[in-house]
Structures are given as structure tokens and as C-alpha cells.
Design a protein that fits this description.
This protein is of the alpha+beta class. The protein contains 2 helices and 6 strands, in the order βββαβαββ.
Length: about 140
């Protein structure tokens, strides 16, 4: 038997209008086959302005909303999450409770796998959280 090569795959860039990461040369997300991989989504609005200065709950809600936008633009959604990685500069109980409230509002069983990691800093000193995700595509 002759071994066969794996089929080629196509990477499709996920964008938004406006695309808040385009100027930095970063894709908001990449769709490959049946999966969508997001870049880390920060607590910024569609024009790249940080929201919720000093307010973890507001920043977490914005970052998750950005994840949702990227997934939706890729033909997916929060209901198709497989894995989330949450980077936070502070894992205090109040911050963990704020994120737990977002989970309760936006996730349904079976819940995605998730890692919650404390980091010393993020790309912008005003950011308290950044979220990256993997989801299935339709």
C-alpha cells in the first residue's frame, strides 16, 4: 500500500468590522476545519479603547463579549465553546466570583474546559483580564 498524505487544510482569518486587532497584525481568530481559535480577547471596545478601567467585572464582560463576537463571525458561538483560557492579573475571590457570574449567565452544560491563570501583567497595564478560546464551528 502507498501511504497517503493528509488532506490539506485551510486557515481562514476571522475578522470584525471594525477589526480591533488588524492594525497590530493579529487575527481576531483563525478557523481551521471544524475549530475556531481566538486570539486573546482584551477588555476593549470595537475601536480598541479599554473599557472598565479598574473594574474587573466590566472588563471580564467586555472580553467575553469580544470572544462571542469573534466566534459568531466565525460561524460559531459561546454555546460551542470547547476550551477557555482566562488570564487575570488578580485572582482575588471577588474577581473569581465576578467571572463565575459570567459563566452562570453564558455557559450551559456541558461546560467548556477552562483554565484560570494569574499573570503578572498583560499587554496593556490597564487590562485586568484577557480571554482566549477554542470552539467548534458549524
Amino acid at each position: 500500500m502507498t501511504p497517503t498524505s493528509p488532506p490539506p487544510f485551510t486557515r481562514v482569518r476571522v475578522t470584525a468590522d471594525p477589526d480591533w486587532y488588524e492594525e497590530a497584525g493579529i487575527s481576531l481568530g483563525i478557523r481551521v476545519g471544524g475549530l475556531v481559535f481566538t486570539s486573546g480577547q482584551a477588555p476593549i471596545d470595537a475601536h480598541g479603547t479599554t473599557v472598565g478601567h479598574g473594574d474587573f467585572a466590566a472588563q471580564a464582560a467586555q472580553a467575553l463579549a469580544n470572544v462571542s463576537t469573534v466566534l459568531t463571525n466565525a460561524g460559531s458561538g459561546l454555546d460551542r465553546l470547547v476550551k477557555l483560557t482566562v488570564f487575570a492579573t488578580d485572582l482575588s475571590p471577588s474577581h473569581q466570583e465576578a467571572f463565575a457570574a459570567l459563566r452562570a449567565k453564558h455557559y450551559a452544560p456541558p461546560f467548556p474546559a477552562e483554565t484560570f491563570v494569574q499573570v503578572a501583567a498583560l499587554a496593556d497595564p490597564a487590562w485586568l483580564i484577557e480571554i482566549e478560546a477554542v470552539a467548534t464551528a458549524s
